[in-house]
Amino acid sequence: MRICRFAVNDELFYGVLEGLDAAGEPGDETVIAVLDGHPFNGINPDGRFVRYQDVRLVAPVIPTKIIGIGKNYAAHAAETNLGSVPVEPLIFLKPNTSVVGPGEPIQMPWQSERIEHEAELAIVIGRVCKEVPKERAADVIFGYTCANDVTARDLQLSDGQWTRAKGFDTFCPLGPWIETEFDWEDVAVQCSVNGTQFQDGNTNDMVFDIASVVEAVSNAMTLLPGDVILTGSPAGTSVIKAGDTVAVKISGIGTLKNPVVDRE
Ligand code: MG
Question: Where is the Rv2993c-like N-terminal domain (predicted)?
Fold first, then answer.
């Protein structure tokens, strides 16, 4: 099931996408079954439908927190000069004010001269949980979406920690929707800029798999419904600048596209 969040005028709703084409993409026939409230306590359609073409998708969730996993693909750890892969999942936070939805601009802050895209598979948590053992990780996962862990690489290195580099407003595009039926193994995670592909990784190359990540994060902090875990970026990150369009594509979920603009 594909759960989206959308705006009609200034009002926000959750909904279930129906009538996707053979490739799983929205088309002329696509409609959205409107949900009563949010989907984390059960999927409750309110009986209304809207045409996909008549609405604007927004970020599928505004989490209370976004937990990033650093250096979870060995080849990316090597290319960024941030040292070897960690012996346990390396956890950092991005503020929820960094979230933007599909089609919303990523704003380039003036403090950085090297801002890079990081295409990542994002886990969306479905229930309040803590200390979740690997074997029960699937029980607390609501679904998955695409993420771009936008990073000011120069500040990441010069600050010595990652909060500013990864925390600027608009530095966490999420979407275009949450896929609730998704097998994360052997999935391509790709990123292109202006149509040229820069990242082409595979989730099988994660240092710590999905269950291990959920266990490690929930051993440190309580997770709430809608919280998002970014599972790390494969190699191939590259610089983005105003005027670019960045597309994160994950097989079985979809494509998250964002234009890049200078911060006003
Ligand atoms: Mg990352």
Answer: 1-60
Query: Which residue in this structure is represented by tokens 């909060």?
Result: 163
Residue 83 has pLDDT above 80, yes or no: no
* % of the chain exceeding 90 in pLDDT: 91
CA 149 to ligand 1 center in whole angstroms: 5
For residue 39, the model assigns a pLDDT of 97
Interval between CA 14 and ligand 1 midpoint (Å): 27
CA of 130 to the centre of ligand 1 (A): 23
* Stretch(es) of the chain classified as CATH 2.30.30: 2-57
Residue among 77, 83, 95, 69 nearest 212 (CA): 69
Q: Assess contact for 115 and 222: CB atoms under 8 A.
A: no
What percent of the chain is predicted at pLDDT more than 70?
A: 100
**C-alpha to C-alpha distance for 144 and 161, rounded to whole angstroms:** 27
Phi first, then psi, for residue 229 (nearest 5°) are: -115, 120
Class of 66-262 per CATH? Answer: alpha beta
Ligand 1 centroid distance, CA of 96 (Å): 15
In the chain, ranges of CATH 3.90.850.10 domains = 66-262
Confidence of residue 22 (pLDDT cuts 50, 70, 90): confident
* Predicted pLDDT of residue 25: 85
- Residues surrounding ion ligand 1 at CB below 5 Å: 118, 149, 233
Mean pLDDT over each residue of the chain, to the nearest integer: 96
* CB-neighbour burial class of residue 5 (10 A; exposed 0-12, middle 13-18, buried 19+): buried
User: What dotted CATH number matches 2-57?
Assistant: 2.30.30
223 DSSP β-pair partners: 129
The reply to whether the predicted model has a pTM over 0.85 is: yes
